[in-house]
Fold:
Amino acid sequence: MNPASIPASGMSDAVFALTLALLLVAPLAIAGVALINAGLGRSRSAAQALLGNVAIVAVTTIVFALVGAAFAGYLPSTTGHSFQLAGKPWNWLGSGGLLLSGFASSTAQVQLGILFEFLAIAFAAIIPWGSGADRWKLTSGCAAAAVLAATVFPLLAHWVWGGGWLAQLGVNFSLGAGFLDAGGAASVHVLGGLSALAVIWIAGPRKGKFPKEGFATALPGHNAAYVLFGCLLAMAGCMAWNTAGAILWLHAPLAALPVTAINTLLSASGALAATFIITRVRFGKPDASLCANGWLTGLVASSACAGLATPGESLFVGLVAGIATPLLVEVLELAVSIDDPSGAISVHLVGGIWGLIAAGVFAPQAGQFLAQLVGVATLLGLVFPLTYLLFWLLNRFFPFRVDSDGERIGMDLHELGGGAYPEFVIHRDESYR
Structure:
């Protein structure tokens, strides 16, 4: 279809072309996190980890096109499904056509918005895949991604981006401009982090991670080069992602876009600097994987506030994220016995929540902070229980955890019949019991 034939609906051809170009670069963030997921897992599961990321992107794309996009709502002529409560309309579910029927007649901005959502659900679904590394079956991971794409994500996307009740908090209750989530801090990162927490609780820790006696066993990632290169890819993708989100959801003028990109970079840089210093002080040398997680947490936090904060405020957001990340990783592992190989809970869940709160603090609109708190409460009090329940039911039909023999020999041999590094001998973990 020729983009020039699409009604602009207030979007000039230049802005359309710029936004489309940014969205074509944004998947670098997905590629970066996929590499990080693989690098932080064990070498005997590396091929399964990367194949899982690719398969999850494919599954979410198909399922969201079939049914999810209809529930998210994309046609401007439809208002979605609403009910009246306390004299106010509560728009809770979108109304669109299955398999994107009628999508081609939508405006340019609507089409770009739905493309943004396709990328968003793919990104959100690979986040828990990293947390289930070395023990989560590929078929079960794809099934969980399908559940997210068909149910939870469309609901949340409609509430936030499709004119749903969270977006209407400003109109209905004078809470700023309504819940703001320009870069997907809630719909991508917090949703992904909550899904990761559900997977960890259902699947349990890796064998040997928490022995009956003694401290938690260190199971370091097998390839720091994957992890650090993934950080650079994620930086490029998130800069494009946040800038495109500022255009689509904040209606930012062109003059505000360079600042949005700079804020993204500043947040990540501040986070890395803080994590680098903390790990250097605590361990005598900087820790590569924790520094990578700090960098990524800064990018995650920026997805909520890069289009609303000043450069100085963005640097502060990153510094707080970088201080919290290594401390939280240690608390979750040692005090709560959470086995999260990719650090998704501290990076995506906590980083996303911090970014959403910071957006409310730094936004110029009165009442915006309260609107952001309502959104965070909704994520924790409604979205998480729904996600956990659906995953718990799914586990009854598609058990998440591989059997003990499969975990012992590695996911590559057990599920794919071959390893990622056939020319090397992959040693069994001595900690396995």
